[in-house]
Amino acid sequence: xxxxxxxxxxxxxxxxxxxxxxxxxxPLARKCEEARALPDDALARAHELGLVASALPAxxxxxxxxxxxxxxxxxxxxxxxxLALALAVLSPALGALPLADFxxxxxxxxxxxxxxxxxxxxxxxxxxxxxxxxxxxxxxTTARRDGSDxxxxxxxxLVPWLPGGEHVLVTAxxxxxxQLFVVPRNAAGLIAAPDxxxxxxxxxxxxxTLRGVRVPADxxxxxxxxxRLVARGRTALAACGVGVARxxxxxxxxxxxxxxxFGSKIAQKQAIAFLLANMAIEIDGARLLTWEAxxxxxxxxxxxxxxxxxxxxxxxxxxxxxxAAVQVLGGHGYIRDYLxxxxxxxxxxxxxxxxxxYL
Amino acid sequence: xxxxxxxxxxxxxxxxxxxxxxxxxxxPLARKYDEEEHxxxxxxxxxxxxxxxxxxxxxxxxxxxxVQVCIQxxxxxxxxxxxxxxxxxxxxxGSAVAAAGTPEQKQKYLAVFGDRSAEPAWGAxxxxxxxxxxxxxxxxxxxxxxxxxxxxxxxxxxxTGGEGAATSPAGFVVVWATVDKSAxxxxxxxxxxxSGTPGMSIVGLExxxxxxxxxxxxxxxxxxxxxxxxxxGAEKVKRDDADAKQTxxxxxxGAMATFDASRPLVAAMAVGVGRAALDCVxxxxxxxxxxxxxxAPPTELTAIERDLAEMEAELQAARLLTWRAxxxxxxxxxxxxxxxxxxxxxxxxVTKITQKxxxxxGPLGYSKKxxxxxxMRDAKINDIYEGTQQINLLIVARRILDYSSAMLR
Lengths: 359, 409
Fold this sequence. Notes:
The complex is a heterodimer. In chain A, 50% of the residues lie in helices and 16% in strands. Chain A contains eleven helices and nine strands. Chain A has a four-stranded antiparallel sheet with strand order 2-3-7-6, with no helix packed on it. In chain A, helix 7 packs parallel to helix 9, helix 7 (226-258) runs antiparallel to helix 11 (340-349) and helix 9 packs antiparallel against helix 11. Chain A is globular. The relative contact order of chain A is 0.14. Helices cover 50% and strands 13% of the residues of chain B. Chain B has twelve helices and eight strands. Chain B has helices at 9-35, 42-50, 66-85, 91-100, 103-110, 162-167, 241-247, 252-287, 303-330, 336-366, 372-379, 389-401; strands at residues 123-126, 142-146, 149-160, 172-178, 188-194, 200-205, 216-227, 231-232. In chain B, a hairpin with a 2-residue loop joins strand 2 and strand 3. Classes of the chains: A alpha+beta, B alpha+beta. Chains A and B meet through helix 7, helix 8 and helix 9 of A and helix 9, helix 10 and helix 12 of B.
């Protein structure tokens, strides 16, 4: 039966995460952005909430409650707090969930427990490539079988690279088909160089160069399905984008209700009020598209179409919402004492990111 | 009940049932009654009245409630929005009777729609006036109590289904009129005027951009006398909003509340027209070997594919906003904000989608060989009636800003 109300359990999770985002992430957003640094304490507390662990298989000590819908609800709340911090908090999912989806039992047994320990353990997934037309389905990075090894060559970018990570999952083409490999961060021939981008500055991102990186044949995730990877990545990113858009909308709304011009609040002028109304409508529509993609994933269906529609829509409306927020705040929107300029820079990243979040 | 996009088997059966009805009985007549404006589409009206309205969709289990109603409307308007509006239904007038009427009033006016022996009947709602469109509170039609009758005087325009309602033997028009101009909104009441009531006359039928099969009437009321019992809701005039709230007044607020139910329905109708155009574009493009890809290399993605993907996303966003407003009615939750969001989005989205469809199909899209140019003309009304896009944005803005209508005009 068609319904759009989160379950009681989901409502509880959302409430908890919303408070966390409000108290632990939002107040640090600007400071972390300027310092280009992550708040270790907040990551530790996020880990205690078990947001990623709850979705990991029970056989390895996880919560065994995988739900793309719940994950989308969580991602929106975190990203509402701050996109960079949300992507950091959710980075364990980049390492752990593709293993749960496509890895063998042996690979899972070897690699999943570290995400279920007492300490926050980041993950990394390298999909985007530094070229025009970066294409998750057809990586330019190659994998060549050489005896009992694979030999990887190519370049990746926008890879979250939080301290303390041990592996990175890398997509590469083998004979024209996309494959996914587990690569140790310290593998010979793997060079990580920090990259600076226009937003999400608190999140450490690297360019990866792979020069003849050798991994054993069993480093390949045998059950890999690039459509599913991309569908999950796009849905996760869409959920984050809805959070960014909502944050921008709320800042603009609250400012418009305070700011006076020509004898009334600017929110009382239709030029501003209609802008806000359209933002609210587009955000709700994009959220529903995101939920539909997540629901389709939870049903086990091929969700690429739904995920792509949601991702396309969110990319557009989040940028529009952030731009509108800057506009509503006028001169104040342009200065870094207020959040909209950060929202605008972060929202623009949505079109460049690919599989920088995963659910 | 969790978040679910799972259409129940009963709704799926209803969707298929009404889709077949639309494809078999509406589509073949769509062009004919676009061209023969003001002619009664008797093939459709007679078939629907004799057979269509009694045909059961089947399907088992729970329905999706108001969401199913939206799904049905989408299918029929995928068939033809003009014919849908010309269908012998109780219409918005019927909704008002159902929402605010006494058991006697409901029996008297609505029973005919389930009666096999009756002649086709229509119900309609008359609110808009030459000087009062979106600003419904500015209504000037008067209702004066004279003995046990109310006497109506005034002119109503843009009355959808007005010809059928004012001329079919069991038809009726629900007319909004003020009993006391000095009381503003509190003085506005609704009256059921049965067809054939002396003093009610059809002055003219509009010649329109689209939905030409739909009879959009101008009705004049000259000393039109109806019994006091034909008033819908409370008779007492409420002096202010607080007073009205306290006593559950169904006058002006009643009219506004019916919008919360009708706006998702209109949004669903809009989605049906938009889908008709999008389906057609996809079919025509498929003939040229073009199909939308979701895994295309970014550098190879064509402009047409990008347009198609955006149209799909926009249509689905409109549909989901519509279903959400309807699902809230299932839960008996207030949906004033969500109903206006759905209506504003759907009206604007299908206006753009159908315009883009004509563009994508080039000369073929502009030609009357296909129905796409008609759907573009039909679609635009959804951005206007049942509250223009701007009125719905105003309602959304007031809600999200927590402003009264006095604070945001």
